[in-house]
Predict the structure.
Amino acid sequence: ERRYPMDQDTLQMILREAVRETVTQVLQALLNADREAFLREHGGRKNGYYPRKLETAFGQVELSIPRDREGRYYPSLLQPYARRQVDLGEVAVALYAAGVSQRKAAEVMSLLLGHRYTHETISALTDQVLKEVEAFRHRPIPEDMAWVYLDGFFLKVLREGIGVEREAVYVALGVTPGGQRQVLGFWLLPTESATAWEEVL
């Protein structure tokens, strides 16, 4: 049985594990939306999934890669970021951090998908991602928490007209009386400071 509170190294390990689980959920949702968009624009039929492991800044994630019956579809979001040296897992966290606007989400989706789709399809995908974001923000969480840990890390964020910059992500990690851990929220802010933490709280 783990006793709380925990030391800093253990907290960092658990925090990254919890974030990795959330990253997996975000990327899976993006993959499913990408295949739907491809089939709408190019025709064809779904043909299940195949497993693939992907290394991210938060550790290895296991994804179910969608495929089509005709063999023409491959997830467009898996390659561009490898070429740009921006971690896809970090993008997933950025999308789910509080304060992601429609415009910012559209920028991220356009960079992820390149020129593969029309503007209308990118807009529809952005709307779908933002619905997932809102569902994450408003999901029910346990009323009782034994502990709430606050910590942060830095990730790469694309800023229009500026390029890629490192910004602070603040994370609230809750632990229930039964020991269940879950990420309560993400906040994306330019720097880590006492003032920013006050804003989060």
